[in-house]
């Protein structure tokens, strides 16, 4: 695990010019970023049609095959990122256990539950950031052991407790703030802690508390690495702390930029929103002389269907700007051109997404290893079910 971490770390540092940028901002230049250093790569990127770009965005294997000739070390790097996928036999759920769980989310929860049950160590469970306790229900009903479900939102605790009581499950919901000192009170040394897609500092906090309280086991699927209080990622392991990467919050978003689970409607919305934002930014720079990027708030998807000009008027109103009468159609067209330039650039960044995620996951795995745990990293479900399918399982050494 240490050797793999160092290998990934070296690869990311050596190739950092190809992922340490923001495609949105880089798209405003007609010249691709690596025109001087890697003209053959830029020439290939420039020949890609919109359809080809779409295909590569959706099929990473196809992209790796075609772009690999520009990155001699890519093939061995990608091969090193392989982790085993845990067997998924499925669970026979008791009636009502899956009540209220959306379809795709249910598949994730059942897979995570099966993985945790198969590697269970301890006499009870701690469900961290539990929501309504969907995962906890599965663990309680399958094992018959007590589940403490810790959740910040009071309404979710109430709803979850009502459902657990209705199904006569041994679950106790505890409302609390994961970042408050009082959160330590829910831990004891008999618990197997689980967390499905706990974001950023939330899963880091669980790892630290778990180590402090000598939990017999932890099974965690991390998510949203960028949701941290610090500007830069604070590495946990000795190897991570020794690395020169110093990942920013923006860079921590890179592993999350995947469209695996997005349908045609989601893709269309993204195309329109990004084209509108890019077109509007061009308009501000050329018509109002803006030198710096003007951030625009999140928008309702319904606004996208009204067209580019209404979007510009809405955005100008939000930023208290007076727009001159311009060729809105022309700016929308150029916004679309910038969109495809952005997508071209992001194809290169796509090569490094899984490596960055593995770096972050291995940093946490090594931290647990260095604190007396036997640790494994695996995939608990397919990437089609969720791109965030990496699982850290840690069992305390006796």
User: Strand-residue fraction?
Assistant: 5-15%
Order of strands in the sheet with the most strands?
3-2-1-4-5-7-6
Uncertain runs with pLDDT below 50, 5 residues or more? none
- Give the % helix: 40-55%
Rg over C-alpha atoms, rounded to the nearest angstrom: 23 Å
Tally of alpha and pi helices: 16
> In this structure, how is the largest beta sheet organized?
7 strands, mixed
Helix/strand structural class: alpha/beta
**What is the residue-mean pLDDT, rounded to a whole number?**
94
Order of helices and strands: HHHHHHHEHEHEEHEHHHHHHEE
Number of strands: 7
Distance from first to last alpha carbon: 21 Å
Globular, elongated, flat, extended or rod-shaped: what is the shape?
globular
């Amino acid at each position: 695990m240490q050797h793999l971490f160092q290998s990934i770390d070296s690869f990311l540092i050596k190739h950092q010019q190809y992922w340490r940028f923001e495609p949105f901002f880089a798209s405003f230049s007609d010249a691709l970023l690596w025109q001087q250093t890697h003209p053959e790569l830029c020439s290939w990127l420039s020949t890609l049609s919109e359809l080809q770009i779409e295909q590569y965005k959706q099929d990473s294997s196809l992209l790796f095959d075609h772009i690999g000739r520009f990155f001699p070390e890519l093939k061995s790097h990608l091969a090193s990122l392989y982790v085993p996928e845990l067997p998924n036999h499925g669970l026979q759920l008791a009636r009502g256990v899956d009540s209220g769980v959306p379809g795709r989310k249910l598949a994730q929860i059942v897979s995570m539950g099966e993985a945790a049950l198969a590697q269970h160590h301890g006499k009870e469970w701690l469900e961290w950031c539990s929501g309504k306790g969907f995962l906890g229900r599965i663990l309680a009903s399958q094992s018959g052991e007590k589940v403490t479900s810790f959740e910040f939102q009071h309404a979710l605790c109430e709803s979850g407790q009502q459902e657990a009581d209705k199904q006569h499950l041994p679950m106790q919901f505890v409302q609390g703030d994961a970042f408050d000192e009082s959160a330590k009170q829910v831990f004891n040394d008999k618990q197997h802690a689980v967390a499905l897609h706990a974001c950023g500092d939330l899963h880091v906090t669980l790892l630290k508390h778990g180590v402090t309280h000598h939990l017999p086991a932890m099974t965690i699927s991390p998510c949203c690495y960028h949701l941290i209080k610090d500007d830069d990622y604070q590495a946990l392991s000795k190897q991570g702390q020794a690395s020169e990467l110093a990942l920013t919050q923006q860079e921590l978003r890179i592993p999350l930029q995947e469209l695996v689970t997005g349908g045609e409607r989601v893709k269309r919305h993204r195309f329109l929103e990004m084209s509108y934002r890019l077109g509007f930014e061009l308009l501000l720079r050329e018509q109002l002389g803006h030198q710096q990027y003007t951030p625009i708030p999140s928008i309702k998807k319904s606004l996208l269907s009204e067209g580019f000009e209404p979007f510009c008027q809405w955005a100008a109103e939000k930023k208290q700007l007076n727009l001159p009468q311009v060729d809105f159609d022309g700016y929308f067209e150029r916004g679309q051109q910038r969109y495809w330039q952005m997508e071209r650039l992001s194809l290169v960044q796509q090569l490094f997404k899984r490596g960055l995620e593995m770096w972050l996951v291995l940093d946490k795995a090594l931290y647990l290893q260095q604190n007396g745990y036997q640790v494994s990293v695996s995939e608990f479900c397919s990437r089609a079910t969720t791109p965030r399918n990496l699982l850290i399982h840690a069992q305390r050494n006796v």
